[in-house]
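pasting for ref. prot 1 ->
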Amino acid sequence: MKVLAITPELPTANDPGSMAPAARQLQALRDVGMDIITQDMRGIPKLKYLQVIPRMRSQLKNVDLIHAHFGIRSIGPTPTRSLTEEACS
């Protein structure tokens, strides 16, 4: 399964503690065979969504699932309650 993981800024050599739990989760999924494409939300704080959207859109055709970590909001449609209830029943 190919997953697009949208996350806040992931750890770097200069900032190793930034979102370290998310990085560990993504690595655990890779370790069990998932194909994870990460898209972190780097950029100018008030403009980063606009900067990242073109990169995310280019990946949508290539993935089976999109996972957005906490704090990342969808610009697209949100499932309605009836769709969510159907999926859970």
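and prot 2 ->
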Amino acid sequence: MSAIGHCGNCRARPSPADTVVDCPLENLASDVATGFVFDGFDPKDSLGALRRGFALWNRAKEWKQVQQRAMAQDFDWDSAAAQCVELYRRAVDASTG
């Protein structure tokens, strides 16, 4: 999966799926889609993701929105560390609360 100049395309497991939100119509309408995900590890599943990508490519405005949303995501270590600290803090608060 890459967010450098294009929408991502990844297999759902193992991880880049943690960073890519698939592009069905519901996710496009909700402005959360960032790429194309496929579950199985066979040509049929990956072909479905490619077809969704080609279909979206023909909708230039939505393609650009998905592309920009994917490129705007922040996956640096500082953000990840801050999320881990917050999760740990909430766990400690819940166990002592």
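The two ends are 41 Å apart (CA to CA).
Residues 77-96 form the longest helix (20 residues).
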